[in-house]
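Progress report, Aim 2. The chain analyzed during this reporting quarter is listed below.
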Amino acid sequence: MSLHMRADVALCETEDALVLLDERTGRYFQVNRTGAVILKELIAGSSVERVAANLARTYPVTLEEASHDVKRLLDQLTEESLVVS
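Predicted structure tokens for the chain:
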């Protein structure tokens, strides 16, 4: 999967989260620490399946739960037009 942030979306990493600014609308979005890991891995070129497997190894969640979480975040970012694939 090739995922990219839209050119007019600014990212700022904080201690506990990742903040995204949609410069077109002025809206801010915050992604928690786990969401930041997911987003960074997807942008780096990892597949949804690989990201989910990494989460399942790192956190106390099943592969099914991790897959659901990755897909849900990806759907939300896509719905808000923050990412393009």
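The chain has three helices and five strands. Helices lie at 33-43, 48-58, 63-79. These observations will guide the mutagenesis work planned for the next reporting period.
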